[in-house]
Amino acid sequence: MTAVLPQQKPNPGEGTYTYSSQPRAAPQRKKFRNDTDQAPIDPNGPAPFGNIMWDKRVVRGNTYAQHTLPAAAQPDPIEIQRQQEQRRRMVARKRAKEQLRPRSPDPVEGRKHIDVQTELYLEELSDRVEEADVEIQTDAFLDRPPSPMFIPAKSGVDVDTQIYEGDLFDYDIEVKPILEVLVGKTVEQALLEVMEEEELANLRAQQRAFEELRNAEHVEQQRLEEQERRHREEKERRMKQQREVLKKQKETADKIASRAFAQSYLADLVPSVFGTLADNGYFYDPVERDVEQGFMPWLMDRVCEEIQKSELGRLVVDGMIREIVAARSQAFQALTDRIQNEKLMEQQAKGLAAETPQPAKTE
Question: Are residues 18 and 5 in contact, defined by beta-carbon separation less than 8 angstroms?
């Protein structure tokens, strides 16, 4: 078979593409399928024909977003470590969730736990794994017709036996006891079945009567339960109303008591508070307060200034007097010392004059 693409005008650097293969005859297919005649599979030869849906070499899904790595590319150790860390974190999180999930207590000895559905809508539980069949259309083979039954060739000589009258048993005589037994057993079985049917009918009647009585009792029970529920709700509603009334009465009594206590407490509190405030000077006469806080301090300041001036004058006079007295005392002391010195000098002079001889007068 030869397939040639349409001829186009050759462009510079381009040529025509031609695919050709040697012609060969179509393979001879068997007319019938025979499961026993299977050719041995050569492990070194080409793979036998099979379903391509199960071939691992066939890529499934979208191939646009696939990242194909070259054959010589080495996996990234950082990426492998990150994937292992994520997998380890997922396993730890799953184990923590399993440990934190509330569990039922262990069963007692001789018993075991079973799964019981407590949801509002029941769901069928089964251990059967959901399966799905996948088919593919292949060429059909005709079934081989069944082989004819093998009948061996006849061999030997035919032999027959002659039976005379009286050799066999008398059917009427021999069959009578058997027939009596069969008829008796049949009648007995029929009676038993009739009695069983009557007993079953009586049981069904008793069952119907019991079911009717049970249904009537169930209806009566539901009516009583509903009546009890209404009574209980009415009782709870009445009790709630009574509690609310008592609560309101208590609140009203507390308010009245609080009002009376406040009035009785404030009756003596207002005069005492006003008296205390008046004593502490919160209520005052403006003229008196102006005299006390304005005039009296000013007057006291002026008096203090005058007193300080008088004291200062006295101190100055005392200082002057002290200086004058000290000066006079010093002057008197100096005068006294001078007089004593003069007297002493006179005495010394007199003594010297008495001891010295008089020189002679020359003419």
Answer: yes
